[in-house]
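In this supplementary section we document a worked example of the pipeline. Step one takes a protein sequence of length 231 as its only input; no multiple sequence alignment statistics are reported here. Step two produces a three-dimensional model, which step three serialises into C-alpha cells for compact storage. The input and output of this example are shown verbatim.
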Amino acid sequence: MLKLDREGEEFVFANEWDILIPVELCETPEAGLTVTVIPRLKKLGREFVRKFADRPFSREALEWLRTGIAGVSADWGYPVGRHSVRHCRIFRFPEGETPREPLPGGRVLTEADEEINETTFDIAESVRDGRLCFGQEVGGRIASVAVTHASPDERERGGTLEIGIETVPRARLRGYAASCLLGLTRMILDHGLIPEYRCTCSNAASAKVARAAGYVQIGEACSFVLRRAGR
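The serialised model returned by step three reads:
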C-alpha cells in the first residue's frame, strides 16, 4: 500500500527543517507492506511497490530507493553525502499474555525523579507531556528508563504505543532495561493499547532486551533520513 505524507512534506519544506524523511517502509502482519512517501516522490513510491513488493527490505530494493532519492534530494538542499538509512525490527508484546513483574527498585516515575535521573531522558518533561515513564532506581539514582513516545491519550484504544529505553553504562547487563520494559508494558496494557518496541537491525543488545521481556518480532521498518549540508 502506498501512502502520501502531505503534512510532513509541507511542514518540512515550509519551515526549512534540517532533517527530511522522504520515504518510510513498514511491514506488519495486520497492515502488510506500507510505503509512505512525500508527494514529490509519489512516482518513485509507485514504482518501488511495483518492483519490490515481495522483497522490500532486500539490499537491491533499498539501494534502488537510495539511488532514486539521491537523484532529486540535492535540489532540495539535502546532498547525497548526508543520507542515512535506519532499518529496524518491530517487536510487540504477545496479545493475551501477562508481563512478568519488574525487578525490585523498578517503579513508575514522576516529575520529581528528574532530580535523581542519570539518563538523557527528560523525565519531568515526559511526565508533563502525559507520556508514561517507568524507571529503575539503583543506589538512589534512576539508572534505567523506559518511556512512551507519546501520551496514551493521543492514541485510540487498541492502537500501538511505541517505547524508548535507555540504561546508563554502570547499570548495564543486569536486566534493568528488560525490567523497565516490563513495567512500562504493564502500564500501556492497562490503557488498552498495544506496546511496541523498535530497534535497529544492527543493535543485537537492544533486540535481546526486547526478547528478555517477552516481546516477539512481528515486522520491519526502514526510514531514509536526509540532512542539509553542513548541519
